[in-house]
Amino acid sequence: MILHDVKNEDGIKNFFNEVYETFIKVMMNPFYQHNTKIQLPVFDKKVMVAGRKHLLN
Predict the structure, then answer these.
(1) Domain limits of the chain?
(2) Chain centroid, CA 55 distance in Å
(3) Among 20, 36, 37, 41, whose CB has the most other CB atoms within 10 angstroms?
């Protein structure tokens, strides 16, 4: 859930697109066990970077 004060539809859309692309890359990884929790520090970091990039103005 994202709560925000400023109307930033493009930033939110871009954030979710970038996170979705990262998620798909994890799902396509042959070493990832499907239907398990994603516990990758790299994934967490990429989500945080995307949030700073698209949601902080």
Answers:
(1) 9-56
(2) 12
(3) 20
Q: State the Cα–Cα distance between residues 45 and 47, nearest whole angstrom.
A: 5
Tokens found for residue 1: 């859930």
Half-sphere CA count of 44, side-chain side, radius 13 A: 5
18: pLDDT strictly greater than 90: yes
pTM (two decimals): 0.82
Residue-wise pLDDT for 19-37, tens only, equals: 999 999 999 999 999 999 9
| Side chain identity at residue 48, one-letter code | M
